Structure prediction request, 151 residues.
Amino acid sequence: MVSTLSNSPSQIYDKAAIHFLTGGFPDNLPIEQAHVHIGMYLGWIIDQKLYSEYFEEECETQIFRFKRREISPALFSEMWSGYLASEIFSDTGNMFTYYYYGGGLYKSDYYRVLAQELPSIYHVKDSWENYELMSHKMNSRFEIWKAETSI
Prediction:
């Protein structure tokens, strides 16, 4: 894994606090639900080993526990303060995240795969079944992206 830390400022892709502090988040849900969509993406990054050395050093135990399915995607996001930023990702992970998450495709896929029948994306259950459904979609997007970018 290659670290993406450099002299350039960090690119922040998402932060859970933005969802529950700036409106649009349902009042009847616990704020932990703002971590589900972020945690699913972060979990997929872990499973694909697309994280930076910095992230690995900071979260070695949590990564190990996530891989053993001892902590859920949303809980992992909470433990990481609920944010996705460039320093988390390897170079390849960051390029894909910029394209997929930053470009809005992840949110669209997340809605179609997991939230279409729900009142909002925040109502998606933090479950391994939902994680697997979303992982399958992300794997497909990643393979297409790699083919298109020759990575």
